[in-house]
Amino acid sequence: MTFSDLDLDPRILEGLDELSLTNPSPVQKQTIPSLLQNQNMIIKSPTGTGKTFAYLLPIFHHLLNAKIMHDEPTTLILVPTRELARQIYDVCLNFAKHLNLEIVVIYAGPREQKHKRDLDKHFIDILISTPGKLVDYVKRGWIKLGRIAISVLDEADVILEMGFADVMKFVTEALPHKNKRQSIIVGATISSNLAQFVKEFSGKIDMKEVTGFEIPKSISHHAIIVTEAKKFDILKKLLLHEKFEACIIFVSSIHKSRITSRNLFKANIDHEEIHSGRTQRQRNRAIENFTSGVVDILISTDIAARGIDIPEVTLIINFDYPKSFDDYLHRAGRTGRFGKRGKSILIGTEKNLTALSLYEKKIGKRINRVNKIAQFNNRIGYKSDKNKNRKFKKRR
Q1: What is the DSSP string of 191-205?
Q2: Which domains does the chain have, with CATH numbers?
Q3: Which residues contact 382 (CB under 8 A, 6 or more apart)?
Q4: What value does the mean pLDDT take over residues 2-20?
Q5: Are 208 and 42 a contacting pair, CB within 8 Å?
Q6: Which long-range contacts (CB under 8 A, 24 or more apart) does 260-269 make?
């Protein structure tokens, strides 16, 4: 099957052709036909399977062929983080530049006057927003949601995990009745809390879970089991000795990110960090420096990393163990993109052995383990850091 078999508008097919995209991914094959028929849908699929295009292409199709008789937003895409909002906005702009669609993105930060100018435009086809900022502008009267025909919750589970349940109730009440709009829920996981919320937000809804998905064979999985006190030494040695184009280090909290960052700077290892405790300007700079290659190491929390899609990432280091296998999939899925080789390394202690065995069962193969420091040193050919002079990229 090719995209031309999906009854998409010819102008969309031209855009896909410009991007050299011919064949839809499994999740796109399973969802696009039903979404073109205005069905409500939950799209459950791991990171890197093409979920964003799975809902964006039908949205573009509807907007290109709709007779819109008002100047209020027609499509709402709600996401948990600023980074994901920005990424989806960039994808929309890049693809829809020839479609004559008006797309606006809003999120927290020192941009209110720009947001006001964007929102004052006569027509807004697609509005992309984080929950808190959307509610703020609705209450001020800057945004009206009464004409929304398509509502999307991307990374819906994360939106609820971040404590936006009350905010989402407000948004649901501001939107047209659930029977008068198309609802699309997107995520890698569907929790019991989300399942309950979906009933209120969407009414009758079809569940599409991508089938036949396999963790890319281009990703190799490794685990290093040490004491808690030795974890940072292992991290430093990995950064000095592993070969990578770009590396993301995952930590469990803002506090852990700050400590890890401080210790890396003490070791003269340049990097950036991203988490919700940083200002919008700091987060933008971190993403820009990492994306452009000014630095090749990024420390991130799980939620902050949603929306980071950089093909050059070839190494993932799980400095703190993921909370679940789904979180591990999210992390590992940041590498091995587009057929490139990638490596995911877990740094843990003996208390993580049970989780490690579970990951092996779900991956379907044994994870390469190193259980002793000496064994680790031998495997990477490590002798001493004293003469090791890896040149890390520095900020401009």
Answers
A1: -HHHHHHHHHHHSS-
A2: 3-209 (3.40.50.300), 219-380 (3.40.50.300)
A3: 237, 241, 376
A4: 90
A5: yes
A6: 260/232, 260/235, 260/299, 260/319, 261/299, 263/232, 264/236, 264/239, 264/297, 264/299, 267/236, 268/392, 269/236, 269/239, 269/240, 269/297, 269/392
Q: Around 222, how many Cα atoms within 13 Å sit in the side-chain half-sphere?
A: 18
Q: Are 169 and 133 in contact (CB under 8 A)?
A: no
Hunting for tokens 């709709």 — which residue is that?
A: 66
Quick one: pLDDT at residue 394? 46
This prediction has a pTM of 0.75
Q: Comparing C-alpha atoms, which of 195, 209, 287 is closest to residue 49?
A: 209
In angstroms, how far is CA 145 from the centroid of its own chain? 25
**330: number of Cβ within 10 Å:** 23
Q: What single letter denotes the amino acid at residue 189?
A: T
Lowest mean pLDDT across 76-85, 215-224, 231-240, 380-389: 380-389
**Nearest 10 degrees: Cα torsion 346, 347, 353, 358:** -10
**DSSP string over 26-67:** HHHHHHHHHHHTT--EEEE--TTS-HHHHHHHHHHHHHHH--
What would the pLDDT profile of 142-161 be if each residue is shown by its tens digit? 999 999 999 999 988 888 87
Q: Residue 122 is encoded by which pair of tokens?
A: 């006569």
